[in-house]
Amino acid sequence: MTAFYMKKWYFDLITDKGETFYAYFITYRIFGKSQGLVSAHLTLPDGNLMQDSIATEYSSPNVEGKLAMGPHFLMQQNGRAKIHMELSHFTIDLQYFSLERFLKWHVPQPRARVEGTIKNTFQVLKINGFGYQDIVETNIPPWRLPLAELIWGRAHCGGRTVVFNQITTKKRNVIQNIHLSAGADADRPSQTEDSASESEDNQQYALQTNNGDEETRIAKSGWTLLLKRRSIIEESPVTTSDRIRSSFLRNALARIAGNPQEKKMFSEARLSDGEKIWDGLAIHERVLWQWKTR
């Protein structure tokens, strides 16, 4: 039996009104003890924040692709995903309809249309926006992750979606992946780059951040993406109390796992190919590990 195993399902969305939302379904096992976690984070255009989470038991996904955690569930089938959460402060009921017909980098939905509702005690938000979903699965214990920094993001700009990540290891090696697509609602055919390709080194790009991540610029082979931060929607340790309820386990894990710090941002995005410009919105983040040197 491995000491650690974790699988995470991540969803987010940006609406035309400026609401940003992200949610997690997480299952993990530490030294034989299994646990499930659901959490949701909603930031309104006026800056008000709603967030909630709950630890719960879970059942393995069935043949229909349904993951159940008490009254909360995730279903994925035929290019669609449905998430339902019943938390203390609000209820989430969203459906993701894929606008892509392929799966890259464990990203089953790099570009999705999102419809549904998010309710709390005071209001019901009817949701219509663009979303993204990825899946992370690993059996590497957090205290053995060879990571020093992760910069990740995705931007929707006028019918185009850019998904990127840059990983810097403890040994200062840099790994980059990028995906640029034009969906059915864009004005020219789909363009994709496969991060899994080993036949050619076409994944390198230039990434520059300025003024504490107020601006992030990516340049690659004829196009650029500029992100101008509008707000920070979360800035905290990765080992937060809503993810790990036990203070003893949380503090111990932070000490031995490099105490990673996360900054998740909402930004205005501008994509340009030198001739045309497409404006849009983005969610992106930087995670820094603070390993102690011997």
Architecture overview:
This protein has about 290 residues and is mainly beta. The chain has two domains: about 1-140, AttH-like domain (AttH-like fold); about 140-294, Beta Barrel (AttH-like fold), CATH 2.40.370.10. It has one helix at about 245-255, and strands at about 5-15, 20-30, 35-45, 50-55, 65-70, 70-75, 80-85, 90-100, 110-120, 125-140, 145-155, 160-170, 175-180, 205-210, 215-220, 225-235, 260-270, 275-290. The strands form two sheets. It has a ten-stranded antiparallel beta sheet, with no helix packed on it. The model is unreliable at about 185-200 (pLDDT under 50).
What does the secondary structure layout of this molecule look like, with pairings?
Elements: E1 4-15, E2 20-30, E3 33-43, E4 49-56, E5 66-69, E6 72-77, E7 80-86, E8 90-98, E9 109-120, E10 124-138, E11 147-157, E12 160-169, E13 174-182, E14 206-210, E15 215-220, E16 223-237, H1 247-256, E17 261-272, E18 277-288
Antiparallel strand pairs: 1-2, 1-10, 2-3, 3-4, 5-6, 6-7, 7-8, 8-9, 9-10, 11-12, 11-18, 12-13, 14-15, 15-16, 16-17, 17-18
What CATH first level of the largest domain would be assigned?
Mainly Beta
Low confidence ranges: 185-202
- Strand order in space, largest sheet: 4-3-2-1-10-9-8-7-6-5
Q: Give the percentage of residues in beta strands.
A: over 45%
The separation of the N and C termini measures: 30 Å
Label the CATH architecture of the largest domain. Answer: Beta Barrel
Rg: 19 Å
Helix content: under 10%
Shape: globular
Q: Give the ordered list of helices and strands.
A: EEEEEEEEEEEEEEEEHEE
- The CATH homologous superfamily of the largest domain is termed AttH-like domain
Number of domains: 2
Backbone structural class: mainly beta
Mean pLDDT, nearest integer? 86
Number of distinct helices: 1
Largest sheet: 10 strands, antiparallel
Query: How many DSSP E strands?
Result: 18
CATH topology of the largest domain: AttH-like fold
